[in-house]
TrEMBL record:
Coiled coil segments of this chain: none
InterPro entries for the chain: Aldolase_TIM, MutT-like, MutY_C, NUDIX_hydrolase-like_dom_sf, NUDIX_hydrolase_CS, NUDIX_hydrolase_dom, ThiamineP_synth_sf, ThiamineP_synth_TenI
Record-given protein name: 8-oxo-dGTP diphosphatase
Cofactors that this protein relies on: Mg(2+)
PROSITE patterns xrefs: NUDIX, NUDIX_BOX
Catalytic activity annotation: 8-oxo-dGTP + H2O = 8-oxo-dGMP + diphosphate + H(+); 8-oxo-GTP + H2O = 8-oxo-GMP + diphosphate + H(+)
Length: 326
């Protein structure tokens, strides 16, 4: 039987200026020398919040006043099985100071600083860093219609400015257009100019648009998720690209975890007009997948922004939709 997981509570302390506190793991400890969030093991007699309060008091001398659980992820090291529970802490009493001799500092963390944070932290922390920078809403474009790519692009550009920024925008012209005709860099620039975070989702399986700005994410549809290698995904991520993936069941989730995707959509949660044949998996199945994920999970399929509290209660992070946003 699998060994039980140890709960690790982590404080993601965000200053009003956007800086986030992190420490350097001291010599002699697991992950020594890496950047990490303050926190530690929950004791058997503690709730998660009690453990968070105690750890942040002992380690950095602050009293937590407002904390929100933002992500929970399972991570297996060769010698230990952990469940990392990240609380975004936005109000506290005291100035964080090193209580155990560890180096401690608040550094900017936003989309542009994300890659530096990821490079300095253990791989387990990818999901935690992403949970601090990703928007909660992911708008997927409707497919190109009879009026072709030009009409589609014009509708997209005018709509971008009325979507509340920042959002993730998955650029998905659909299978009706040849990939070579899609002006990916121009589309991505329009999304960036409107204050959003573009993700390209080309119809072809293997080829990718070249020369994209590192702020542009890449989406793994089902075919790409199953055919791309972990090395290719690592290369894109090393260049700063966000990698997103479409998950439908346990097998595709396992593949997305193996490839260390930055976020996943889980669909279809409910039946939708855009995929009339597909039955929704329901909230219980969504919750099961969210619990097994190591990254932020976006519910997709018949969900709207008003579903966010329901998504959070089930361990999800955000909402993805076509019809809710266009
Ligand atoms: N504090 C912290 N620990 C992390 C992060 N990411 C990550 O994988 N971990 C791992 C390292 C440790 O195995 C565990 C945290 O446990 P800990 O700091 O209380 O315990 P430890 O094993 O370092 O030391 P000890 O209490 O056993 O002496 O979680 C992170 O961002 N912050």
């Amino acid at each position: 039987m699998d060994r039980p997981r140890t709960d690790i509570v982590l404080g993601l302390l965000r200053e009003p200026n956007g800086r986030v506190w992190a420490e350097i793991r001291p010599d002699g400890k697991h992950l020594a020398g890496l950047r990490a969030f303050p926190g530690g093991k929950r004791r058997d007699d503690e709730t998660l919040r009690q453990a968070l309060a105690r750890e942040l008091d002992e380690e950095i001398g602050i009293r937590v006043r407002r904390a929100r659980r933002v992500i929970t992820l399972n991570w297996d090291y060769p010698d230990r099985r952990l469940r990392l529970i990240g609380f975004e802490v936005t109000d506290w009493v005291g100035v964080p100071r090193s209580g155990e001799g560890q180096a401690l500092a608040a550094e900017p963390l936003d989309r542009d600083a994300r890659a530096d944070w990821l490079a300095a932290m253990p791989p387990a922390n990818r999901g935690l860093v992403n949970a601090l920078v990703l928007p909660r809403c992911l708008a997927i474009t409707p497919p190109v219609r009879a009026d072709g790519l030009t009409g589609w692009q014009a509708r997209l550009e005018s709509r971008l400015h009325s979507l509340p920024a920042p959002m993730l925008v998955n650029l998905r012209p659909g299978p009706a257009v040849g990939q070579a005709s899609v002006p990916w860099p121009a589309l991505a620039r329009a999304v960036l100019a409107a204050g959003h975070w573009p993700v390209v989702n080309p119809p072809a399986d293997r080829s990718w648009p070249e020369g994209l700005d590192p702020r542009v994410g890449l989406h793994l549809n089902h075919a790409r998720l199953m055919s791309m290698s972990a090395g290719q995904v690592r290369d894109w991520q090393a260049r700063g690209h966000l990698v997103t993936a479409a998950v439908h069941d346990q097998a595709t989730l396992e593949r997305a975890v193996e490839l260390a995707a930055d976020l996943v959509t889980v669909s279809p949660v409910r039946a939708t007009a855009t995929h009339p044949g597909a039955r929704g998996m329901g909230w219980a199945a969504f919750a099961e997948l969210a619990e097994a994920a190591a990254m932020p999970v976006y519910a997709l399929g018949g969900v709207v922004v008003g579903d966010l509290p329901r998504i959070w209660r089930r361990g999800g992070f955000g909402v993805a939709s076509i019809s809710a946003f266009w």
